[in-house]
Amino acid sequence: GAGVSQSPRYKVAKRGQDVALRCDPISGHVSLFWYQQALGQGPEFLTYFQNEAQLDKSGLPSDRFFAERPEGSVSTLKIQRTQQEDSAVYLCASSPDPIEQYFGPGTRLTVT
Amino acid sequence: DAKTTQPPSMDCAEGRAANLPCNHSTISGNEYVYWYRQIHSQGPQYIIHGLKNNETNEMASLIITEDRKSSTLILPHATLRDTAVYYCIVRGTDSWGKLQFGAGTQVVVTP
């Protein structure tokens, strides 16, 4: 069956540009998560939605990062005025229950 | 603050059992032990979780010590496709949303 999909898979942005990363969760999954993974490190939590409500955004590194899920399905992570330290793989996961999170393949963002 | 400690890497021969250790000495009574793995260029994948009893599924077995301060993930017959980074995560019922990954263990299965 269809898993979590993310687009684009690769994004190159010049420093200062805005980017938008999309996540299509598994149909029916109420919970959605965003993680950031720097090279050689484990994923770091960014934010969490239950349906359209953003219940935890404690991991967003700055106010340049913004996430939304307006209709409780597709989610977008937006990064304004990208910096080189934003270069990372951005992972999206969805979950039907507290036990298992299903991850997408990630979007690799490179800021030049 | 790291809640788990894992060796950075380990090798395993194809067909043999892989035993992956994890220390979680500060685990509290309502926290579960979860294992995920991440194959290169893919997102993490759930493997198994447990509270205090040993658990087994089609992918692996999880052995948790009686004092719950450490655990071992066992891949019974490692294959080349099991080469991945394995993450041991402690997670409470009051924070079931997020997963806190550490650096994990890079497991390389060799022919």
Spell out the key features of this protein:
heterodimer, A: 112 residues, mainly beta, seven-stranded mixed β-sheet, four-stranded antiparallel β-sheet, 11 strands, 0% helix, 49% strand, globular, B: 111 residues, five-stranded mixed β-sheet, 47% strand
Q: How is this structure best described in words?
A:
The complex is a heterodimer of chains A (112) and B (111). By secondary structure, chain A is mainly β. Chain A has strands at residues 5-7, 10-13, 19-24, 31-37, 44-50, 53-56, 65-68, 75-79, 88-95, 102-103, 107-111. Chain A is globular, with a radius of gyration of 13 Å. Chain B has 111 residues and is an all-beta fold. In chain B, the strands form two sheets. Chain B has a five-stranded mixed β-sheet with strand order 1-9-8-3-4, with no helix packed on it. Chain B is globular, with a radius of gyration of 13 Å.
Number of strands of chain A: 11
Mean pLDDT of chain A: 96
Shape of chain A: globular
Order of helices and strands of chain A: EEEEEEEEEEE
Please give the count of helices of chain A.
0
Number of strands of chain B: 9
In terms of DSSP E residues, the strand content of chain B is over 45%
Strand order in space, largest sheet of chain B: 1-9-8-3-4
Question: What gyration radius of chain A follows from the Cα positions, in whole Å?
Answer: 13 Å
Low-confidence parts of chain A, pLDDT < 50 over ≥5 residues? none
How far from one another are the termini of chain A? Answer: 36 Å
* SS class of chain B: mainly beta
The share of residues in helices of chain A is under 10%
Helix content of chain B: under 10%
- Biggest β-sheet description of chain A: 7 strands, mixed
Terminal residue distance of chain B = 37 Å
SSE string of chain B: EEEEEEEEE
Average of per-residue pLDDT values of chain B: 93
Looking at how many chains there are and whether they match, the oligomeric state comes to heterodimer
Radius of gyration of chain B over alpha carbons? 13 Å
Main interface: chain pair and counts: A-B, 24 and 19 residues
